Amino acid sequence: MRRFDVAIVGTGAVAALHAEALSGLAGRARVVAAVDVDEQRRTQFGTRFGVRRLHRDLDELLAAGPPDIVVLCTPPGLHAEQAITCLDRGITVLCEKPPALSLAELDRITAHTAADGPYFATVFQQRFGSGGLALAGLCRDGGFGRPTAAVCDTLWHRPDEYFALPWRGRWETEGGGPTMGHGIHQMDLMLAVLGPWSEVVAIAARQARPTATEDLSCALVTFENGTIATVANSLVSPRQTSYLRFDFTQATAELTHLYGYRDADWAVTGAPGHEERVGTLWTSRLTGVDSGHAAQFRHVLDALEASVPPPVTPADARSTMELVAAVYASAFTGRRVRRGEIGPGSPFYERMAGTGAPWPAPAEAVTGPGPVAGPG
Ligand SMILES: NC(=O)c1ccc[n+]([C@@H]2O[C@H](COP(=O)([O-])OP(=O)(O)OC[C@H]3O[C@@H](n4cnc5c(N)ncnc54)[C@H](O)[C@@H]3O)[C@@H](O)[C@H]2O)c1
Fold first, then answer.
1. What is the pLDDT of residues 146-195, one digit of tens each?
2. In the chain, what are the domain boundaries?
3. Yes or no: is domain 127-291+319-350 CATH 2.30.33.40?
4. Three-class SS of residue 330?
């Protein structure tokens, strides 16, 4: 078994989840270095996780000795430039979501990968719980019949202070609001289950938060297999929930959670006459794996050991990013948007804001007691 040396770039909130996940992988990977422009953060991170090699920027890390994998936990606006720097040195990159600020940036990153490595993978950890993997398999092999309808709700709450971090709530640095930054996890899981989407009609609004981006979007998404989904992405919902529902001709599968799920968070109901078969089939596919960074890391390391592209591949992440772009394009132009329509030359290809949000920009300063952490 090969052991992979990992460097984490950006030692803020999410980096701790990576370090914890990596430490539980039975020696298959270890964090050998960490990078942050903020000295206090990188020192605290080094002390907490026993990482001795600490660098103040990516160039210094690479000059001191390149690792096997760089994990990018920096704000979204830095992902493309940092990923390309690593890929051009032959280093595989695992990048936090969103992988880039736009489809154009993601395509640029992908152009620096190669079929036999270096690879670029995006962290979409909700795909890797055993319930999500089981349902994707059942959708592919028809075990629950044909999918017809779906619900994809990310109804979260972030107070104004959450946006005091300078990169949040701005198109240029976060790339979008809850559609791009929060609901993207659930939409990605929905796409992992249902496959390619084909058409979107959407509305976006800024209801309450002091952001340039939306704080609410609602969409109707049609899939190539005929499924029709309602999708809501909110940061203005005090009773928070993440809810996914998939109706098949022979079963309904529901997932209710917040930031991650276990097998017990799924409920599966058979259609009349299918109850017993559906229940048995579902439980036979579960393996007790919680969704999360550790679950994705195992799949990434398996792929690297087998010399194949690790998940989530640029093509899979692109489908999710294109859905995000299509939600904004439909919301801001009032048109129905088809997959494949947003390419070079479209303003929504270059930036998620495309032709521009219809609401006025907020006052620059965000007031409040200071930054509030929250999973994104
Ligand atoms: N998968 C998830 O569940 C999840 C959860 C939270 C955040 N995220 C994503 O992770 C990324 C980081 O989010 P966060 O909440 O940890 O942000 P954060 O602001 O807490 O941390 C970012 C860190 O990057 C550092 N940094 C900034 N510029 C840098 C540079 N040039 N080189 C090195 N370090 C630099 C900052 O000093 C900071 O410590 C974002 O893309 C976010 O969307 C994903």
1. 999 999 999 999 999 999 999 999 999 999 999 999 999 999 999 999 99
2. 4-124+295-310, 127-291+319-350
3. no
4. helix
